[in-house]
């Protein structure tokens, strides 16, 4: 019997299958539908996205909580870390400006804001100047403590900010923790870079901005200030001690203590357009309870109408203002002051009673804004002084004697000797006092404006000078005076000294005051 081929046999077997099996067989043989694959992000893209989330979260964390308020010496400061491409340290002294130190190279910058001076700690330095010797170490410790506190707080702020933003973006705790860990790693790297590049000598070469940009020209080379800090603090301690002692002495001087009924006169002169003078004068008026201000001239520099606005603060100084014209003050200046409230302009021997004292004065006959001397200037001044002396004698004859005469030039003031107890002048830009041969006391005031722009002409700046004169209200005679001297441009010195007339010194015999000599011929001036 012939054998059936295997291929035929298999075909027959397939034909005998049931229709359901055949259907199942063919269903399994049908091709599967195509599956769509979602493209996965590139690993570098995922890394860049995570870095962006970390940097943004860290920056937001620093903005919200990354600052520390800490005292540094007598100052209250706020220290902050900020992202930066250049690094360094920026010290903000509002509103004067800022100074930048090239202290380190790292992608973070240290900002130090000087908020205010603490009155308690500042007063402690004034009361105990010996503490200045340890001020440098105290400041170093304060800065170190504040920096450590800031580093810890910044770590917390950076990690918390990056973790919170990572959780908000990825919504997976593992990704959020990875963001926080990366933030901490980056902060540690920044700290290590800052530590490795730290430059302690950067304080010797600061960069100034704002109003502080003029600081190097005022305070000198920064390197010399740092290297000579020991000398500086010794001198500062001596200054604070001396000023404190002077104020203590003037307030408890046994020889003369002004009582509340004393008439107090503030004598100023030669302001020469220095706007700082008005604040100084207002402060002296308040501190000494001044009754009247006397200005013996040269308030202006060129006497132009454009300068008149400089005089506006006179109305708000808190005391009546008695004024005479100097050789830098014009008639335009005088007319502007005559229209101001509470200002008493003296000229042509005119007399006025202000705050219980009778004043008379004469404007300077010279007008030399270019500081030139005209021929015959001395004779002109002496003639002006003679006219003022004649007016003083006329007032005495009329029964209205003058207590204080005011004229700008000392050479003119000498002509009134014997006609008035006291004459006030200026012009010389330094203080002088003398009793002239006929008994009149001459008080020459220094420059209350520190000579104005002339302060920079000499080797050393001219000081700012003024004086407080104390008068007995009953006799209207000078009892004492305080000379006040402040350091000129760029200096911070202060001296206060009290002086007594010879007749008021303990144990001295009182000398008679000058009795005005009546004029030999009437001058024709109406009292």
Explain the overall architecture.
The structure is a single chain. The chain has 527 residues and is an alpha/beta fold. The protein has two domains: 43-212, no CATH class; 221-368 and 377-502, Purple Acid Phosphatase, chain A, domain 2 (4-Layer Sandwich). It has helices at residues 6-15, 19-29, 43-65, 119-127, 135-170, 173-196, 215-219, 222-227, 229-252, 276-288, 331-338, 377-397, 410-413, and strands spanning 67-72, 75-83, 89-93, 97-101, 108-117, 207-210, 263-268, 292-295, 321-323, 343-345, 351-354, 357-362, 404-407, 422-425, 432-435, 441-444, 464-471, 478-486, 494-499. Mean pLDDT is 76; it is low at 211-226 and 515-527. Residues 263-430 form the Calcineurin-like phosphoesterase domain. The chain crosses the membrane at residues 47-65, 150-170, 176-198. This is Metallophosphoesterase.
């Amino acid at each position: 019997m012939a054998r059936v081929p295997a291929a035929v046999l298999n075909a027959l077997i397939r034909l005998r299958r049931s229709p359901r099996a055949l259907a199942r067989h063919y269903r399994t043989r049908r091709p599967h539908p195509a599956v769509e694959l979602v493209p996965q992000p590139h690993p570098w893209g995922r890394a860049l996205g995570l870095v962006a989330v970390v940097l943004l979260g860290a920056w937001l964390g620093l903005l919200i909580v990354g600052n520390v308020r800490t005292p540094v010496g007598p100052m209250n400061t706020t220290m902050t870390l900020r992202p930066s491409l250049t690094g360094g340290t920026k010290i903000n002294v509002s509103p004067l400006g800022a100074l930048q130190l090239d202290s380190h190279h790292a992608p973070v910058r240290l900002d130090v804001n000087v908020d205010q001076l603490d009155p308690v700690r500042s007063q402690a330095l004034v009361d105990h100047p010996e503490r200045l010797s340890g001020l440098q170490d105290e400041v170093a410790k304060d800065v170190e403590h504040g920096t450590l506190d800031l580093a810890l707080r910044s770590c917390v702020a950076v990690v918390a900010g990056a973790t919170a933003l990572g959780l908000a973006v990825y919504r997976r705790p593992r990704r959020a923790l990875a963001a926080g860990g990366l933030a901490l790693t980056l902060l540690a790297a920044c700290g290590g870079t800052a530590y490795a590049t730290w430059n302690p000598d950067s304080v010797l070469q600061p960069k100034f901005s704002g109003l502080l940009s003029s600081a190097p020209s005022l305070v000198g080379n920064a390197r010399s200030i740092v290297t000579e800090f020991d000398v500086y603090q010794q001198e500062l301690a001596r200054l604070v001690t001396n000023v404190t002692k002077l104020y203590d002495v003037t307030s408890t001087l046994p020889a003369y203590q002004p009582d509340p009924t004393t008439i107090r006169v503030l004598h100023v002169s030669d302001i020469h357009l220095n706007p700082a003078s008005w604040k100084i004068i207002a402060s002296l008026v308040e501190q000494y309870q001044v009754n009247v201000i006397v200005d013996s001239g040269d308030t202006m520099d060129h006497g132009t109408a454009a300068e008149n606005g400089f005089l506006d603060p006179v109305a708000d100084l808190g005391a009546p203002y008695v004024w005479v014209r100097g050789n830098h003050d014009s008639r335009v200046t005088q007319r502007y002051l005559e229209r101001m409230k509470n200002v008493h302009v003296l000229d042509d021997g005119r007399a006025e009673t202000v705050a219980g004292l009778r004043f008379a004065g004469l404007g300077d006959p010279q007008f030399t804004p270019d500081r030139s001397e005209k021929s015959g200037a001395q004779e002109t001044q002496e003639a002006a002084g003679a006219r003022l002396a004649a007016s003083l004698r006329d007032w005495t004859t009329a029964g209205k004697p003058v207590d204080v005469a005011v004229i700008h030039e000392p050479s003119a003031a000498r002509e009134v000797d014997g006609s008035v107890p006291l004459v006030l002048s200026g012009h010389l830009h330094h203080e002088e006092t003398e009793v002239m041969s006929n008994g009149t006391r001459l008080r020459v005031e220094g420059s209350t404006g520190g000579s104005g722009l002339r302060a920079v002409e000499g080797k050393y700046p001219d000081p700012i000078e003024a004086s407080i004169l104390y008068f007995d209200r009953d006799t209207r005679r000078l009892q004492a005076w305080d000379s006040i001297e402040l350091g000129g441009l760029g200096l911070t010195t202060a001296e206060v000294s009290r002086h007594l007339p010879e007749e008021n010194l303990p144990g001295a015999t009182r000398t008679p005051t000058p009795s005005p000599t009546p004029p030999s011929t009437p001058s024709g001036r109406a009292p």
